[in-house]
Specification:
486 residues; seven-stranded mixed β-sheet; single chain; 14 helices
Length: 486
């Protein structure tokens, strides 16, 4: 992906701020926006029936099943307490439009359906574990008639490309929630946001072209906090120490891992690896792949614009392009399905400056069914406010099941030019075919230094800018424990 694409990849929800934002005169004066947790006494007690829990599940069968299991666990815990039941929703069942995974466009629906009966909306990941009594104790501290945005605080340590270098003078001054620990909105805040979204229209002086705006799933919670903050007119995130990603008796939430244990990793021979390169980078980038993760591949081929027997590379007859590589990627898809290569359940397409842990990827792939059409990686969105589509961003690696590749190739969907952005064209094709884009935060479009959250057990990183890629691989991706290779 181009540098421009990465930079613009974090702005779509910020665009919503311009699109939907109220004027300063319209905003309610005296809004509560404390930045630190304080002790409060609610006018009335908060019970489980006052709570709506939204599990941020996905349409892929594995994630839908995990979300359903988490829902059952929460309701069983509530039944054992005997204090009423919360409403527990699965996000993938609520999605009316592709854009709704961004959460903000979904708020009017949540407000209309549950706004009269709920006091709090609590959002968690599929693997987030809730201790309901502790959660009620936390929420009881905050006056339910005020606007609250609660979560575990994350902040950038330095200006970050994935957040479009926002707050570059002091990146730590702005915080956003860690989705793994869960985050909450009080009903007054959610209802105001919902009304704002419903009634505000495109400003007449709006100058950013929505058709070319992108949004990454990873930047979602930064942009969510930015939207709620409203340039100082709304509440900042209030840090809640009981919203945890570790384990403690006082924690209301804990988090296991984004790399679940679904059994033995898939065999090395079930993952076919396609590395996109070009003659210009044969001596610069390919040696990094060979020095780091190539040894973990069962089947791997380098695809270039020239044949180089010393690597070796394969020339697919598609000229190198400076921008997108759609022509080359579609040639790879056809080759993967041909008799020219060994048959494998999974196709991994990466750039020559992608760093990846194949053992961790093979462990992750055990959770998915290769007979299902699967497109897995870091999810981005294109023109989602205008009925656009989601896609798996190429730099972090695109993982496709054989079923997905077969369905796409047989559909006749194709590139509009050889230099079209391959990842976006694939996303457009899969959306038209009804194949969901499955997001995993283990894939990274940028470098480790571009992120603030914990990156242990990451599957991939991208780009060699101002880093030693071999050192980055050894620190973040190379497992210290030897594994049995199948």
């Amino acid at each position: 992906m181009s540098h421009h694409k990465v930079v613009t990849g974090c702005k779509l929800v910020a665009v919503i701020l311009l699109w939907l934002g109220a004027s300063a005169e319209d905003r309610r004066a005296g809004r509560a926006h404390a930045a630190e947790p304080q002790e409060h006494t609610s006018h009335r007690s908060i019970g489980l029936s006052d709570l709506v829990i939204v599990i941020q599940s996905q349409r892929n069968s594995f994630h839908a099943r995990r979300g359903g299991q988490r829902k059952v666990e929460i309701l069983q815990q509530a039944a054992e307490l005997g204090q009423g039941d919360p409403v527990v929703l699965l996000l993938h069942e609520l999605l009316e439009y592709e854009r709704d995974w961004m959460i903000i466009p979904l708020l009017p629906n949540l407000s209309a359906t549950y706004g009269q009966s709920a006091s709090w909306f609590f959002f968690i990941e599929e693997e987030t574990i809730i201790t309901l009594p502790n959660l009620l104790k936390v929420l009881h501290r905050y006056e339910v008639q005020e606007e609250w945005f609660l979560g575990k605080r994350l902040h950038d340590n330095e200006a970050s490309i994935i957040h479009h270098y926002a707050f570059s003078e002091d990146p730590s001054s702005f915080s956003y929630p860690d989705p793994a620990a869960g985050w909450a909105l009080s009903i007054p805040l959610l209802q105001r946001l919902a009304e704002q979204i419903k009634h505000k229209h495109l400003k007449s002086d709006f100058t950013i072209d929505l058709k070319h705006e992108l949004s990454s799933c990873r930047s979602l919670f930064f942009e969510l906090a930015l939207y709620i903050w409203e340039e100082g007119n709304g509440p900042k995130l209030t840090a809640v120490p009981e919203f945890c990603t570790d384990t403690s008796d006082k924690c209301a939430t804990t988090f296991t891992t984004y790399l679940p244990n679904c059994g033995n990793p898939v065999s090395r021979k079930e993952v076919f690896v396609a590395v996109k390169t070009c003659h210009r980078f044969h001596s610069e980038r390919v040696p990094v792949v060979k020095a780091t993760w190539e040894k973990d591949a069962g089947f791997l081929e380098y695809y270039s614009d020239v044949t180089d027997a010393s690597i070796p590379t394969i020339n697919l007859g598609v000229p190198n392009t400076e921008r997108g590589h759609c022509g080359k990627t579609f040639a790879i898809l056809r080759r993967y399905l041909s008799k020219d290569v060994p048959e494998a359940d999974w196709l991994l397409i990466v750039d020559d400056d992608t760093l990846i842990s194949l053992p961790r990827l093979r462990r992750l792939l055990r959770c998915y069914d290769p007979k299902e059409a699967v497109s897995l990686g870091e999810r981005y969105g294109y023109s989602l406010l205008l009925n656009g589509y989601s896609y798996t961003t190429g730099g972090g690696g695109m993982v496709l099941s054989r079923a997905a590749v077969s369905r796409l190739v047989s559909s006749g969907c194709r590139c509009y030019s050889d230099d079209a952005p391959d990842d976006m064209v694939l996303g457009r094709c899969f959306t038209s075919l009804g194949v969901p884009i499955t997001h995993s935060p283990l894939f990274h479009q940028a470098r480790p230094c571009d992120y603030s959250e914990t990156l242990e057990q990451a599957v991939s990183f991208h780009k060699h800018w101002n880093i030693d890629p071999v050192i980055v691989y050894k620190h973040w991706l190379q497992d210290t424990q030897p594994t049995v290779e199948l």
